[in-house]
Structure formats: C-alpha cells, structure tokens
Amino acid sequence: xxxxxxxxxxxxxxxxxxxxxxxxxxxxxxxxxxxxxxxxxxxxxxxxxxxxxxxxxxxxxxxxxxxxxxxxxxxxxxxxxxxxxxxxxxxxxxxxxxxxxxxxxxxxxxxxxxxxxxxxxxxxxxxxxxxxxxxxxxxxxxxxxxxxxxxxxxxxxxxxxxxxxxxxxxxxxxxxxxxx
Length: 180
Known about the structure:
Order of helices and strands: HHHHHHHH
Helix content: over 70%
Oligomer: single chain
Shape: globular
Low-confidence stretches: none
Largest sheet: none
Number of strands: 0
Distance between the termini: 29 Å
Radius of gyration: 20 Å
C-alpha cells in the first residue's frame, strides 16, 4: 500500500499531537525514564515532525509541541537522539526548497550564539539550579557530575570490535548472524 496524500497524513497526525506530549510529561513527573534510550527515540519522530511542520505552516502550537518534546528528550533522554533531532531540523531548514534560508539562518545563528554565550558565562549556576529542580534528569545529572561527554565504556568496546574485525574481516558477527 502506498500513500500519496502526505498533507492528509500530516493533518491526521496533528489530531494526535497531544499523545507524545502526555507520554513525555507523565514519564518525567513519574520519573519513569530509566530506559532513557527507548524513551528518547520513542519521542524523536514526533518532536522533529511537530517542529518542522510548525515551522512550515507557521503554526505556533505545533512548534511549541515539538519544542516541549525535544526539551524532554534533551534533559531526560539520550544525547544521540538530541543531536539527531537538531541535525534533522537544521538540515531541513537549510535545504528546504520552498523557502530561502537567509533570515532564518541568521536568526538561528544569533539565537544559538546568545544561548552559548549565556551558558558559557553562567553554566555552573544554570546546572546547579537545574539539578536542584530536576535531580532525576539524566542529562542534567551528567552535566552536574561532569560526566556529560563520558562514553560509559563504549570506546573500549569499539576498540575490541575493531580488533576482531581486523583479525578476521569476513567473519559475520551480530544478532541473528547465524542465519546468514
């Protein structure tokens, strides 16, 4: 089955835009975000969708819905999901053939610069305040303890995988590879 009327699909999806927001907010208030990877990636598509749709159609409620979801992903979810969402939105804004990026790109760069300057000058105070309000937020906790850029042991795993591939590059590895 192929779907060709994307505008109708988007309009139908907007009718249910409250569901991911409810999921995000309830999960945060119930502190039910231990599985932060699944939590972040469950919200990723809707956060990106509502943000891009709102920017295209100039619908503030869609932009706000997207920003709420993306904020929750950033503070309570995974760093990779945050980077994926922001990269998708920025690439879309820069390559959207219907709109010229000019003023939006300048506005985005100015806004990002202001945020970076404020954060650079007041990061300790900001992190301490956020940690006092949201001690269970994964990203805030990692920032507070200085562990934001730590890879949780992944680099050792990557080195081990690389050395095994170098030893025998034609040996198939991974889940369900016994069926290949």
